[in-house]
């Protein structure tokens, strides 16, 4: 069978060339994603600030009852010292007055000098801080600012900006690559931490002869004894796990990259499977006459299937020899681009192991075998007599099972999108992007029927308006519905997929802006380009002339549950995003669409819940709810109001005074300001801007929040990586479209030869082909528009309240114009090549 498959491949090189190219491109794309994904999973974030410790008890975010834990651990015989660490956000200000962000999206934190031993940070300049107005900087930050011992640096911390004298510069054995560290005196650090439980971690330093594994077990036993088996928001880590404890709330560049690559890898695999299946089906469908002859000389169906399967396996193996090295090369190129663009640190190594290449080859082989099996199964059912009797091999019809499956797929997608439009199903852009893939599958299954309907509705009415060549093209398309479907399907895939990905972010952004406009009563919104805004800004803004109300918005996370769950109530627990605002300012600053209760009753012991959280908890106004904070403590509140405008905002609104002491980060994300009636709004704006000059990184805007925060490493990674991989996927689908068009046009050599023998000139035949290509694009654009509309209209209805979605007009116009150009150019070039021979030679070649 291998010899027969090899001989048929040798004789049918042209028919398998397109399949080979498609498999190579699919392997390049999937191998690149797999190599990057494997590199991301293998990349380990090195321990930096805790590198000098043997065991770390890390709080997430705080270590409850820290002093009791330090006392217990210090009493262990193998422990040299247990050191508590205080951490709080702080950012240095450069010469231009802008906050200096830590590299790769890491934290910039202040600490007590007593915890420098956890690095251990060793002074290379100056001395330890002896006064509350002195600090020690890590060497990387000092170099970034261009300062040394004896210089002055401005730092913005929880209490706002202050000038400090640099008493020294210190470095650990491993230079920090993902964070900046500033060390204060113990008294100043405790003041700036400003929390009831300021300790973020306890580092355990072992004696010289101690066994680390045994010490860790002892530490775990003490943690269990102190906090109980129910545990606390702490982790015990040693070895490489210390980095996880150190950066527990900061995604590493490797983890961000792995998340993105995983998503696009799955997407690439879907597109590759889709295109490979279509290309192999076309390659087999073009050989129905040959298969009929084999069946006529007593070849069995099983032999036909095994022959085609072996051919597909041989083509896959040959494609792997080119595609896998090409994919590794693309991965190297993407890695270099991301490192040069400062999205990934130079220390991020690309790991090219055997797992990723072999996995992609196996997946490609499985997809090719499944596609060839489906195509061979249809082809082997062709009756030899029918094939030999007809001048052209008959196209197999569409079966009822395929129709039923396609209808079910479209119905399922329609039900899901209907739930999105009605608000019964959350998910936004993620659900939309998933549904477009489902819709494409449904369109592919029903492509012959949909193309027949589209031809009758879209193409046939154009016939009287077209010249003679165009009218002949309409007739050809209507009679060769299967060929039209095979050409339209990859076009619909490329157009609808790209169009949806372009428009979903636009609709999502418009929905967020609409929700923000509805929710905000504030005239001014203050944002930050740094880690946040110090609470002092809102306090001082509230005292400005002409200001009716001002409050910062403090973001927290916690778990909501019914306080009466132990008494037989519901036991639902909701992981919630919480926002703390000054209670007295809420009615002046926010219109939350309250449907029950009143936000005016928001106080020290009350909370306002969003609709979604209230439904999940099954609570109403007056019911008690419990908040389990990230610091391990718990508070109980009464529901004062239930509001409907919780989309993109918060699951619960709490009074600032009650929540601030539980915040892991005391800096506020935004500050809302309302101008008093009759006051000069421009004067208030000027006052806020003057105040912002004293708080580096703050920006004063109008009544809608602007994301003034400069992109973090993870955001840059998302933007750049999405751009690169989306370009790669679109290039793949575009080449697949060209491939399919080339195969279908080259397969019409007999038809073109007959037209030439009948007296048609080459130019006339080419014009017919060009009109067919153009009308095919019209059908593809119509179907792609329906797919996009099926996804975007429900999404726009849910997010913006309008059934008319916002569109990325420029890119969509380029896409709609580029598709016909590529299609017509491809068909014309292949048709010209096919007609280079004399008509009689072409007919003889086609028959043979």
From TrEMBL:
Coiled coil: none annotated. It is a multi-pass membrane protein. Residues 22-221, 529-690 form the MacB-like periplasmic core domain. The chain crosses the membrane at residues 260-285, 312-335, 355-376, 403-423, 435-462, 483-507, 720-747, 768-792, 804-827. The keyword Cell membrane applies. Residues 263-382, 725-828 form the ABC3 transporter permease C-terminal domain. Its main location: membrane. It is found in: Cell membrane. Keywords: Cell membrane, Membrane, Transmembrane, Transmembrane helix. Belongs to the ABC-4 integral membrane protein family. This is FtsX-like permease family protein. It comes from Streptomyces lancefieldiae.
């Amino acid at each position: 069978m291998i010899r027969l498959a090899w001989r048929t491949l040798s004789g049918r090189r042209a028919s398998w060339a397109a399949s080979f190219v498609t498999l190579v491109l699919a392997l390049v794309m999937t191998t690149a994603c797999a190599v990057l994904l494997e590199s991301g999973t293998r990349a380990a974030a090195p321990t930096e600030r805790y590198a000098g410790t043997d065991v770390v008890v890390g709080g997430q975010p705080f270590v409850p009852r820290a002093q009791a834990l330090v006392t217990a651990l210090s009493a262990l015989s193998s422990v040299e010292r247990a050191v508590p660490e205080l951490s709080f956000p702080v950012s240095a200000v450069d010469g231009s007055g802008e906050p200096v962000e830590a590299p790769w999206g890491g934290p910039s934190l202040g600490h007590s000098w007593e915890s420098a031993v956890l690095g251990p940070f060793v002074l290379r300049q100056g001395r330890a801080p002896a006064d509350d107005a002195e600090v020690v900087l890590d060497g990387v930050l000092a170099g970034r600012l261009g300062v040394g011992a004896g210089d002055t640096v401005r730092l913005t911390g929880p209490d706002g900006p202050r000038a400090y004298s640099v008493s020294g510069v210190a470095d650990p054995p491993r230079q920090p690559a993902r964070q900046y560290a500033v060390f204060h005196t113990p008294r100043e650090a405790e003041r700036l931490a400003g929390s009831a439980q300021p300790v973020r971690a306890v580092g355990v330093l072992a004696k010289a002869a101690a066994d680390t594994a045994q010490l860790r077990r002892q530490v775990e036993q003490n943690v269990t004894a102190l906090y109980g088996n129910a545990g606390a928001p702490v982790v015990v880590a040693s070895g490489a796990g210390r980095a996880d404890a150190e950066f527990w709330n900061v995604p590493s560049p490797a983890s961000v990259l792995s998340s993105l690559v995983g998503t696009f890898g799955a997407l690439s695999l879907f597109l590759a499977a889709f295109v490979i299946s279509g290309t192999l089906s076309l390659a087999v469908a073009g050989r129905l006459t040959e298969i009929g002859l084999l069946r006529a000389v007593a070849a069995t169906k099983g032999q036909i299937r095994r022959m085609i399967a072996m051919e597909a396996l041989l083509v896959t193996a040959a494609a792997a020899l080119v595609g896998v090295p090409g994919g590794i090369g693309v991965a190297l190129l993407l890695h270099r681009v991301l490192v040069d663009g400062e999205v990934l640190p130079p220390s991020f190594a690309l790991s090219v192991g055997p797992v990723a290449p072999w996995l992609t080859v196996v997946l490609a082989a499985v997809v090719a075998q499944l596609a060839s099996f489906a195509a061979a199964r249809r082809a082997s059912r062709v009756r030899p007599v029918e094939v030999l009797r007809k001048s052209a091999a008959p196209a197999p019809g569409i079966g009822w099972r395929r129709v039923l499956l396609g209808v079910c797929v479209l119905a399922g997608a329609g039900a899901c999108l209907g739930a999105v439009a009605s608000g019964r199903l959350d998910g936004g852009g993620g659900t939309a992007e998933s549904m477009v893939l489902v819709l494409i599958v449904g369109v592919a299954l029903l492509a012959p029927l949909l193309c027949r309907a589209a031809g009758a509705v879209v193409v046939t009415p154009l016939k009287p308006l077209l010249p003679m060549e165009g009218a002949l093209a309409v007739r050809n398309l209507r009679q060769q519905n299967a060929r039209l479907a095979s050409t339209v399907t990859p076009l619909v895939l490329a157009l609808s997929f790209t169009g949806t990905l372009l428009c979903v972010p636009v609709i999502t952004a418009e929905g967020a802006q609409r929700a923000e406009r509805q929710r905000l009563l504030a005239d001014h919104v203050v944002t930050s380009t740094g880690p946040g805004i110090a609470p002092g800004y809102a306090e001082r803004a509230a005292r400005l002339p002409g200001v009716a109300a001002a409050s910062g918005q403090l973001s927290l996370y916690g778990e909501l549950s019914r306080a009466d769950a132990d008494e037989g109530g519901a036991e639902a627990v909701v992981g919630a995003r919480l926002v703390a605002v000054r209670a007295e300012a809420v009615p002046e600053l926010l219109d939350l669409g309250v449907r029950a209760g009143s936000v005016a009753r928001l106080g020290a012991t009350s909370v306002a819940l969003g609709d979604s959280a209230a439904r999940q908890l099954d609570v109403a106004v007056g019911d008690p709810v419990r908040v389990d904070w990230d610091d391990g403590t718990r508070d109980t509140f009464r529901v004062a109001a239930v509001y409907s405008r919780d989309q993109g905002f918060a699951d619960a609104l709490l009074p600032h005074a009650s929540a601030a002491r539980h915040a892991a980060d005391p800096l506020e994300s935004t500050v809302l300001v309302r101008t008093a009636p009759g006051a000069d709004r421009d004067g208030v704006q000027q006052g806020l801007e003057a105040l912002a000059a004293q708080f580096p990184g703050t920006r004063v805007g109008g009544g809608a929040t602007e994301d003034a925060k400069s992109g973090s490493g993870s955001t840059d990674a998302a933007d750049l990586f999405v751009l690169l991989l989306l370009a790669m996927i679109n290039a793949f689908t575009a080449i697949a479209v060209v491939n399919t068009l080339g195969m279908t046009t080259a397969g019409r050599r007999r038809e073109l030869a007959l037209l030439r023998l009948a007296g048609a000139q080459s130019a006339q035949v080419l014009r017919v082909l060009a009109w067919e290509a153009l009308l095919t694009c019209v059908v593809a654009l119509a179907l792609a528009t329906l797919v996009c509309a099926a996804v975007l209209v429900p999404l726009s209805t849910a997010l913006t309240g309008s059934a008319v979605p916002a569109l990325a007009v420029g890119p969509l116009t380029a896409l709609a114009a580029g598709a016909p150009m590529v299609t017509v150019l491809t068909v014309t070039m292949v048709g010209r090549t096919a007609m280079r021979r004399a008509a009689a030679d072409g007919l003889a070649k086609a028959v043979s």
